[in-house]
Amino acid sequence: MAVTWTRAWWRWTGGPTTRPVERVVRVDGRSRADEPDDERQAFGRWVRKRPRVDGGKRRGDGCGRRSLSPTWVLAVGGPQPAGRGGRVGGVGRDASRLAGLQRRLQGIAGGLAVYDEAPDNVSSSTYSSTPSLPGCRVAPGRRADAGLPLARVTSNRIDVEALAAMDGVGRFREVLPMLMDPVAFAEAFVSGDAAGGCRVPSRGMERHRATLRSCGVASDARSRPAFAMKAFTTPKKDGRTARLVLDARPLNDAMRRPPSMDLPRLRDFIAEVERHRFAMQCDGVSYFYQFPVDASISRYFGIGMKGCDMLLNVLCMGWSWAPCIAQRASNVLVRDLGLAWVDNFLVLGGTLDEAERNVAVFRKRAQAARVEVRAEGDDALWQVRSRFVCVGVEFDLAAETQRHRLDPAWAERWVDGSGMTAVLSGRATARQFAEVFGGAVWATDILAVPRCHFAALLSFAGRLGGRMVGAAAPVWDEVVDVPPSARRELGALRKIVRENPWVVGGVPEDTGSVLWTDASSRAWAALLEAEGRFVDGRQGVFAGPDADAHINLKEMLAFAEGVVRLCWAPGAQRCRIDNAAVVGAVAKGSSSSYAANRVLSRSLRVAERRRIVLCPGWVPSGEQQADPYTRGASLPRFPAPLSASR
Question: Largest CB tally within 10 Å, which of 278, 307, 545, 589?
């Protein structure tokens, strides 16, 4: 009997979807009842297929009598059914588990045939990411935990009502009903979705059942949960234990989006820390698990398990509202004392005495709300320091001028990691590139390197991300070809991160001048204002490809011309632009447009050589001083009064 690659219909809670079977184990002539239940449930789904003979001729119509005995196909490395909010992926979590599956299946029936060849309609690059086991994919979005035990978690529970009483702003009280009030929780659902009914089974979680019970994180469900979702584990930084995460996308899709987290921007976080001289750092112990969930709400946080489902009794890691609740609670504890980054607390002080007083207040608040904290790393709890590492940033507040840089340990891992090696070689999985690119974004923010200098890298990341978002089943282990231009830019950034220079905080003195730039459909103009008059200016007409460019790019070109031709004095240079897109791009150092990034990179490199810090600001078009000179007016003789532009 010839084996023919076909397509199978999967039936799931989200409706029928079509997926190609990519790696199959064919057991001919055996019925489904002959196969052990544990093999079917633990390692794959059996799909009844229409038998084919001699080149794929079909016998029977799938409903009536068949001339051949039934054939059952076990999808080993192929896609799994994707339910509502589900994730498509392989059966195994790593190559060793899939190899073990082969060995166990050999005892089911004689004459077992394993086919590793990829079908014609599936890219062969999909199969090159799992060494020694061709034809299999690791499930996207999952990291193999290699059977690691769950990390030890605290059984402490926060007194959320006491914490809400300390909330002078009311931001935490706004989201507290999502933990305690079932009516408010139900109102957060999109109309008609509160009933739930979704059940996605978890794999390999039964071994953690006793641990989850003992620490009070979860309990056995006495009735069917409204949402029983897939749980999985990911390795922690120590590499010896794993953390529990719930794939709560079915629940997230059924609820409205949460409000703002109130998480500070990274640059604002760093700037606030560098205004002080001393700090005490600690973090919450199993912080999400310290938030209790009312019993009437826990039915929405079910874990689909073999035998008996479980219900989470604490804040669900994976639920879209969880980070918002945790961050707002942390902000209550550090209000007027310092900063919080989810479960990281930083108590600050301009002097040692002030820092110690703030630490004493923080301790009282933590004790009153029953929040369990611990010291970061090897530090003693409540110890005030001037040099420390927090959220991946090393701070040195004892220096004459406060400074910061990347955490050296993190920088070393990113620079010499296997993902970086694969990306620089030109062929890497989409997952490897995403991890490396995420680190690049983090590094450029901390080291204050404008991302517009890496226009090709940003462009490739945007194209790859768009393809993954638009795909029905993103294949994160697909091998992609990284363009040479993107690799060159990544190599340049890698060199900067390897050096890991200190970045000195603070804003330089103002130059005392204001740069006005504007563009119309055909011309651009730039004026430099100082001491209440215009002291210099330039104007020009767009020609060549620039004449047909988008207005945002023309505004960026006008800004670049003004910086290069008019700005020479070192210091903080104020810039006035009437285009919000250009203001935003200059402020954050990058744009979503490749062409705009190239233009912005040129102007920022010039400003850096001249030790100029550009400070953009938006003005209405009616107040733009350079506007008349983009519409045919000639520049005045300089110096000229401000009224000359009207």
Answer: 278
SS3 track for 154-207: CCCCCCHHHHHHHCCCCHHHHHCHHHHCHHHHHHCECCCCCCCCEECCCCCCHH
Within 10 A of 528 (CB to CB), how many other CB atoms are there?
24
Closest C-alpha to 195, from 240, 149, 119, 251: 251
d(CA 546, CA 553): 8
Q: Could you tell me the two tokens for 521? A: 């459909």
* 436 three-state secondary structure: helix
Per-position b or e across 203-231, b if 16+ CB within 10 A of its CB: bbbeebbebbeebbbbeebeeebbbbbbb
How many alpha carbons lie under 13 Å from residue 309 in its C-beta half-sphere? 24
Q: Which pair of tokens denotes residue 448?
A: 């204050």
Determine the residue type at 555. Answer: E
Q: Counting every residue, how long is the chain? A: 646
* Cα–Cα distance, 309 to 323 (Å, whole number): 25
Write down the pLDDT at residue 378: 58
Q: How far apart are CA 356 and CA 362, in angstroms?
A: 10
Residue 545 CB-density burial (10 A; 0-12 exposed, 13-18 middle, 19+ buried): exposed
The neighbour count for residue 414, using CB atoms within 10 Å, is 23
Pairing of strands 533-541, 7-10: unpaired
Residue listed under structure tokens 């945007």 = 462
SS3 of residue 482 by DSSP? coil
Strand order in the sheet with 113-115: 46-49, 71-75, 24-28, 113-115
CB 524 within 8 A of CB 539: yes
By C-alpha distance, which of 90, 49, 55, 87 is closest to 70?
49
The two three-digit tokens of residue 6, written as one number? 């076909």
The three-class DSSP label of residue 630 is helix
- Taking only the tens place, the pLDDT of each residue in 133-191 is 233 333 334 444 557 888 888 889 999 999 999 998 889 999 999 999 999 999 999 86
Q: What is the pTM of this model?
A: 0.72
- pLDDT at res. 645: 64
**Looking at this protein, which amino acid is placed at residue 424?**
L
Query: Which residue in 638, 532, 630 sits closest to 577, CA to CA?
Result: 630
Coil/strand/helix, residue 592 = coil
Q: How far apart are CA 517 and CA 528, in angstroms?
A: 9
- In this structure, the strands spanning 403-406 and 393-396 are antiparallel
Question: How far is CA 120 from each of CA 48, 181, 307, 468, 478, rounded to the nearest angstrom?
Answer: 22, 54, 39, 22, 16
At residue 557, φ and ψ (nearest 5 deg) are -65, -40
278-312 residue pLDDT tens: 999 999 999 999 999 999 999 999 999 888 899 99
Residue pair 559/617 in contact by the 8 Å Cβ criterion:
no
Closest CA to 158 of 248, 255, 287: 287
Strands 344-349 and 338-341: antiparallel
Closest CA to 218 of 321, 116, 314, 318: 314
Stretch 542-546: mean pLDDT: 92
Rounded-to-integer distance, Cα 50 and Cα 35, Å: 19
In the chain, what is the straight-line distance between the N-terminal and C-terminal CA atoms, in Å? Answer: 87
